[in-house]
Specification:
By secondary structure, this protein is of the alpha+beta class. It contains five helices and eleven strands, in the order βββαββαβαββαββαβ. It folds into two domains: 129 residues, Ribosomal Protein S5, domain 2, CATH 3.30.230.30; 65 residues, ACT domain (Alpha-Beta Plaits), CATH 3.30.70. Pfam families: Impact_N.
Length: 205
């Protein structure tokens, strides 16, 4: 893994089932971008498993793995959410929610048994998902007259930058996307080319 890539899933994984001492643990993995996505996915599972007692989960968000949360949902402290989160770390995943839905089977598992069960359930859910490596990119904007169009296009090709949008009405306006690790070098090349007017995209705070 490089600094301008991250690992995630692009679609929900297959439902998994892990059984131990009568208890059933249904495992799910969802791609998520926001905490609202997390809540929607959990609500869907609560409708599907309306007789289940525990919906334990962990999520991680951000291309730089900035945000995470683990929830035991009534199980003993750190016996469910953190073992699930440990699997997110083990597989190095972000923008993902993993939920383990437990139906109690009548026999208490103990804290050690719960930790093992939720860890296994999370592992199975992740393994039933398709993991993808995504690049972190950044964009900037280029404006020029028509006589500089070929220069801008050729420069983008030479620097392995991608023109993801163009507007060619009164003059030429391009949106350029580039890998994060290459951004400064590519941006400076465009900026130093006579006839090209370059501006950065303002990042949301």
């Amino acid at each position: 893994m490089t600094e301008d890539t991250y690992k995630t899933i692009l679609k929900p994984g297959q439902e998994t089932l892990y059984k131990v001492k009568g208890s059933k643990f249904f495992g799910y993995a969802f791609p998520v971008e926001t905490e609202e996505d997390v809540q929607q996915a959990i609500e869907q599972l609560k409708k599907k498993h309306h007789k289940a007692r525990h919906f334990c989960y962990a999520w991680q968000l951000g291309k730089h793995y900035e945000h995470y949360r683990a929830n035991d949902d009534g199980e003993p402290s750190n016996s469910a959410g953190m073992p699930i989160y440990g699997q997110l770390q083990n597989f190095n995943l972000t923008n993902i929610l993993v939920v383990s839905v437990r139906y109690f089977g009548g026999t208490k598992l103990g804290v050690g048994g719960l930790i093992s069960a939720y860890k296994t359930s999370a592992q199975l859910a992740i393994e039933a998902s398709e993991i993808k490596v995504k690049r972190i990119t950044k964009v900037f904007y280029v404006n020029c007259e028509y006589d500089m169009m070929d220069v801008a296009i050729r420069l983008a090709n030479d620097l392995n930058a991608e023109i993801i949008h163009q507007n060619l009405e009164l003059d030429c306006n391009y949106t350029i996307e580039v890998r994060l690790d290459d951004y400064d070098r590519v941006f400076e090349n465009f900026k130093s080319t006579y006839g090209l007017h370059v501006r950065e995209k303002k990042e949301k705070k």
